[in-house]
Amino acid sequence: MNSDVQIAGDPLALPHLMPPPAAHPATVAEFAGLARAIAADTASWAPLVRYDAVTRWYHRLRTGPGYEVWLLSWVPGQGSGLHDHGASSGVFTVLRGELAELSAHGTRHALGAGAQRVFAPGYAHEVVNDSLEPAVSLHVYYPGLTEMPMHRPPLCASAVRPSAVVTS
Ligand SMILES: [Fe+2]
């Protein structure tokens, strides 16, 4: 131990010598960038992932001023049901595997690893793993998710009886 070393003064009184405060995202682009940065840092999330065949697994990975980052896993066949996110906006990124996102209007997006979707408050969708491999996704919500109202799914085309089809 070197007893000759002394610290003169209070280092906290010298703000110009302090490291800058951690930057937090404040725009949609910055939240999307945060999601991409976490996705690229596999060591920060991969060891945490669990798969649960009984119920969907999720883990709050990070929080910041007004936002939350969640890690979700999906075994084949698991899905969210059609829902919105209350007052929250969000960014959702596939980390591993493939997921399908279905909009309330029936539009389907096939999302492979690295694919990213951004949504505004009130946007309704359903996310499902209809592949044969497990999948992992990352979800950023701003503000943090406090409700996830479920919606009734739209009638799918196969539910329409042939007699209802009108031809000209
Ligand atoms: Fe969602």
UniProtKB/TrEMBL annotation:
Transmembrane segments: none annotated. InterPro entries: CDO_1, RmlC-like_jellyroll, RmlC_Cupin_sf. GO terms for molecular function: ferrous iron binding; oxidoreductase activity, acting on single donors with incorporation of molecular oxygen, incorporation of two atoms of oxygen. It comes from the Bacteria. Fe cation binds at residues 83, 85, 125. The keyword Phosphoprotein does not apply. The keyword Metal-binding applies. Keywords: Dioxygenase, Iron, Metal-binding, Oxidoreductase. Belongs to the cysteine dioxygenase family. PANTHER family: CYSTEINE DIOXYGENASE, CYSTEINE DIOXYGENASE TYPE 1. This is Cupin domain-containing protein. It comes from Streptomyces luteoverticillatus.
